[in-house]
Amino acid sequence: QVQLVASGGGLVQAGGSLRLSCAAPGRTFSRLSMGWFRQAPGKEQEFVAAASWIGGSTYHADSVKGRFTISRDNAKSTVYLQMNSLKPEDTAVYYCAASTAFQAPAIMNKRGYDYWGQGTQVTVSS
Question: Is the peptide bond before 41 cis (omega within 30 degrees of 0)?
């Protein structure tokens, strides 16, 4: 069992930045791909970014490319999502997730993930 604890959400003005963190304590972190998904009110959950556990590959949704960056620190068993140039449409609950898969497109799809964190609210005001 993998427990994920997300943090770092909050209220920020448009154009601002936030960094989300997701800790996954345990010896298996280095062999897990990590992903971020988000769900806005009334909308389907969507892929945001993923970091494979093999080769350092990262993937970002087109809607966040150039603004968001996923990174991982295996020594700290933590994955981060640096979010810059935030827009009101980025408002959502953000979830981190862990997967034993390591390739796209599996790790760009919520069905490719085995473990989920509790979610953290990000609100961007205009």
Answer: no
* Partners of residue 70 on adjacent β-strands: 81
CA atoms within 13 A of residue 87's CA, in its CB half-sphere: 9
DSSP string for residues in 60-79: E-TTTTTTEEEEEEGGGTEE
Output the CA torsion sign for 39, 116, 95, 63: negative
Q: Which two tokens stand for residue 8?
A: 């770092």
Tens of pLDDT, residue by residue over 27-61, are 789 999 999 999 999 999 999 999 999 988 999 99
From the list 56, 57, 68, 70, the residue with the least C-alpha distance to 21 is 70
Backbone angles phi, psi at 69, to 5 degrees: -140, 125
Are the C-beta atoms of residues 18 and 9 closer than 8 Å to each other? Answer: yes
For residues 121 and 104, the model is more confident at 121
Query: Per-residue pLDDT for 16 more than 80?
Result: yes
d(CA 12, CA 19): 11
Confidence at 2, pLDDT banded by 50, 70, 90: confident
